[in-house]
Amino acid sequence: MSEALKPLAVVTGASSGIGYELAKIAVENGYDLVIAADRPEIVEAAQAFQGMGAKVDHLQVDLSTKEGVDELVQLIGGRPVDALLANAGHGLGHAFLEQSFEDILHVVNTNITGTIYLVQQVAKPMVQRDKGKILFTGSIAGLMPGTFQAVYNGTKAFIDSFSFALRNELKDTGITVTCLMPGPTDTDFFERAGMEDTKVGSDKKDDPAMVARVGWNAMEKGEGDVVAGFKNKVQAAMSAITPQSGLAEMHRGMAEPGSGQQ
């Protein structure tokens, strides 16, 4: 495949974790990349992917802002995007009333506002071409009230719901929309969210490479959603039949500060 004919994948949150693994899989499948993250490690990630033979454009940027998303769109330029992997996001632990509202806004604007703004900018040209794939990184957290993680779970409930709505709106086009719903994954998520002393933060977690592969395969098949990992599939099924009050109490046991200390 000549370099000029390589498809292009845009991956956000690609400096580490699931996003890094998604970008790696894209390269392994013959894609060139435009990658972005808010961490300086995005430079090292770009170098690694270039070493695998891909043409890579990278950007360290805050995707919680409209200006940051505009920078990324400008980097993409007029190139057709074959796959958009909207993975950028972060969490926020502890009690809602103890959280800084600035931190709350940053989570909401990263996980929701910046994500849907980017999707709108990238998906419009996809529709004009009648070709493209979109993968959201949602979460099984969106299926339950997030006691001591209320804002994060709320944002993921939005993304899980939004992805299905957009999928239905685009069902008569050549665009597919898939939502990857992982459970706790071995990334820096819990450290950044201040949740290392919680049960969910200290328990064993899924391999991000496995999670990314599950999401990528679902996107390639055009599936609507996929839950990564058997344990998470069971939890997702239970959330559909358990009362919301019970789910909130269950989440307290996982995310309450100090719950990881024995």
TrEMBL record:
Pfam family, one: adh_short
Keyword annotations: Oxidoreductase
One MF term in the entry's GO annotations: oxidoreductase activity
UniProt-listed InterPro entries: NAD(P)-bd_dom_sf, Sc_DH/Rdtase_CS, SDR_fam
Family: Belongs to the short-chain dehydrogenases/reductases (SDR) family.
PANTHER family: ALCOHOL DEHYDROGENASE
Name used for this protein in its record: Oxidoreductase
Organism: Phenylobacterium deserti
